[in-house]
Amino acid sequence: MKSNIIKYIFIVFVIGIILFAVYKIKFQKDNTDSDEPTNIIENEEKTESILNIGISNFDNINPLITKNEDVISLSTIMYEPLLRLTKDYGIEPRLAEEYSKVDSKTYIVKIKDNLKWSDGSGLTGNDVKFTIEKLKNGKSVYSDNVQNIKSIEIIDGNTIRLNLNKEESFFEYNLIFPIISSAQFQKEDFYKSMLAPNATGMYKVTAATEEEMTLEPNNYWMNSSNTDLKITKVILHFFNTMGDAYNSLKIGNIDMVCTSKTDLEKYIGTIGFKVENYKGRELDFISLNCEDTILENKEVRQAINYAIDKNKINSSVFSNNYYVSSFPIDYGSYLYPSESKSSYNKEKAKEVLEDAGWEYRYGYWRKREDYTTKYLNLNLIVDRNDETRVKVAELVEEQLEDIGFNISLYKVSNSSYKNYLENKNYDMIITGVNNGYSPDLTYFLGKDNIANYSNDEISSLLNEVKNISDVNLLKEKYNRIIEIYQDDMPYICLYRNTNKLVHGIRLTGEITPNNYTAYYNFENWYRQ
């Protein structure tokens, strides 16, 4: 009898456990099917959607005031321009609905209807006028963009006319500066204010301290909700030095930094990070004086190009951290679609000279012309204060002499260097430029260029392209310019710098930085 009672008690106990288990499973399923996620999932999603960015030497979040390159790049996710650059440096409308070139010195810009600032107020042509006037009167990185604007007329609330002082090729590339609210700064000293401007972009500033700043989605961005943004909060961490930022990245306190350091591995190692490299706009090249009695012969210029081993220069001087360059706009422009590579070929260099009538005898190239004998004797000028360019010049000298040129390398003072460059009294000179975003080639190929180069067809093409809006026709014209350039070779483009976006492996998505903004396609970034 006693054993039966124990047996029944055991059966009841087992049934109770089964019923409790069924209840728990059903309860958890109901919670899973519910529209409201559990707190655990909420917290996980919230953590995963935060992006921590390191910035050194922060000065001001206002994109018209800041001198910080990282802030300028970052500002593209907060402040929209009239027009913006695409990944391959084309132009596309942002705040502008459309724009048109009325004549050589007049542009009309129509702003999209019903655009709002992050505080809910409306954006108008007055804001565009206010921004241009502040840029003209200040010392912003964008001030040069508007110096050729003589006056701004507001035709109606959303349409403006820009009148220029003079014609400017590809002037639309100047309209990539962010627009700032005029109403917000009426009672502020604009150039001294630390006020975070109202946003028109994806994100707005929601909190700030001396150590960090928080950005969150701007629900007025382009008249649409930001519910699709995968990064729901961006936290900017301010550091005194890039070394401090690198250390913070190493220990996982921040997710990304932007840098141009070529020896980055020395600071952060090689494990646990991804590096997105992209071409910089700093271009170094050799200018060849096309009026020199030797260099006026394009075959000599071609031979110089074949004789220079750009890959060796990149390896020896920059540890292969730079990009070999072949053309002034090969920084990623859609108008130079091919990849630049070294054209080094010693035998081809000699062949070109021989075909042009040069004879190699007793270790030197010579040519009998007009009862005189010419030799390939050339001087090469470099600024002795620029240690990097001096190393490059020494390699160029060595490579040219290796095929029979006689090179006199002059390492001159900075003042003498500027004199040589300004007066164009050199045979060859190593110099460089910081390319603009515009594909305008006037500096290199236009009137009074530093190489004393002239070509009637090039002049005609440069005059044509400044009035062409059809992309395919523009590509066709630039293809012809490139063909002529590669045959005439007035410059030897050497290399351009590399910029890097360095991030942890959990940050992924369409991370495609360029020089306009490291945050291109930011709406498609996310953390795993």
Structural class: alpha+beta
- Give a short account of the largest sheet: 7 strands, mixed
Residue share in helices? 25-40%
**How many DSSP-defined strands?**
22
How far apart the termini lie comes to: 63 Å
Strand content: 25-35%
pLDDT below 50 for ≥5 consecutive residues: which ranges?
Answer: 1-6, 18-47
Mean pLDDT: 90
Q: Give the overall shape.
A: globular
Please give the count of helices: 15
Give Rg in angstroms.
31 Å
List the defining traits of the structure above.
528 residues; alpha+beta; 22 strands
Please outline the helices and strands.
Blueprint (H helix, E strand, L loop, with lengths): L1 H32 L5 H10 L1 E7 L12 H6 L8 E3 L5 E3 L2 E8 L2 E6 L13 H13 L5 H4 L2 E8 L2 E6 L38 E6 L3 E6 L15 E7 L2 H9 L5 E4 L5 H4 L4 E16 L9 H10 L2 H9 L4 E2 L21 H10 L3 E3 L2 E6 L2 E4 L1 E7 L3 H16 L3 E7 L1 H10 L4 E7 L7 H4 L10 H10 L5 H18 L2 E14 L2 E3 L15 E3 L1
Parallel strand pairs: 1-10, 17-18, 17-19
Antiparallel strand pairs: 2-3, 4-5, 5-7, 6-7, 8-9, 9-10, 11-20, 12-19, 12-20, 13-20, 14-15, 15-16, 21-22
How would you describe this protein?
It is a single chain. It is built from 15 helices and 22 strands. The protein is of the alpha+beta class. The strands form six sheets. Strands 11, 12, 13, 17, 18, 19 and 20 form a seven-stranded mixed sheet that branches. The radius of gyration is 31 Å and the shape is globular.
